[in-house]
Amino acid sequence: MNLPESEEIQTLEQLESLFGEVGAPSLQKEVNFLHPVYQRWIQASPFLVLATRGPGGLDASPRGDPAGLVHVQDARTLLLPERRGNNRIDSLRNILHHPQVGLLFLVPGVNETLRVNGTARILAGPELLERFALQARPPKCILEITVETAFFQCGRAMIRSGLWQQNEPASVPTAGEMLQAVTGGVIKGQEYDVALPARQKETLY
């Protein structure tokens, strides 16, 4: 059911009237390079979400490695290895069409996050790939990200969610249950779930 149009915010003026003025720290924390304090943050992060856009629409997908998954090449350049995955390559397809990317870095137990926006290109030189090998397996390619803006995000969203305070995992459908549901039973969920841990371990890199 659609809400009445009178309840829809349609102008910037209407939108800004819902919120207070931006605090000075919220503006001052944004810089157009990787400040050393932001570099330290990135080097401590084992997980990020990569956002891209292309002809097929938007994409946001996870990336993970041991802490320091992204290499800080210099104050304006990041190198992100692209590891083995499901071969959909949605993010990479998007980058070929539109190089703008957004990265959201997380550190377990820390409520603040770090945001980086910039442009990316895809590199696949053998020497570069070998430089980022893990478990003797190089990545498929490297994203070279030229930084345009960097700033940290306050921890309110994490605090509200209680993300790092949850001791027990939430009860959610398993990967097999989701696949069985969306494929109408073509994929058998229980069989998929039984085989998944070994398959993930064997194909991690």
TrEMBL record:
<feature type="domain" description="Pyridoxamine 5'-phosphate oxidase N-terminal">
    <location>
        <begin position="36"/>
        <end position="154"/>
    </location>
</feature>
<protein>
    <submittedName>
        <fullName>Pyridoxamine 5'-phosphate oxidase family protein</fullName>
    </submittedName>
</protein>
<dbReference type="InterPro" id="IPR012349">
    <property type="entry name" value="Split_barrel_FMN-bd"/>
</dbReference>
<dbReference type="InterPro" id="IPR024029">
    <property type="entry name" value="Pyridox_Oxase_FMN-dep"/>
</dbReference>
<dbReference type="Pfam" id="PF01243">
    <property type="entry name" value="PNPOx_N"/>
</dbReference>
<dbReference type="InterPro" id="IPR011576">
    <property type="entry name" value="Pyridox_Oxase_N"/>
</dbReference>
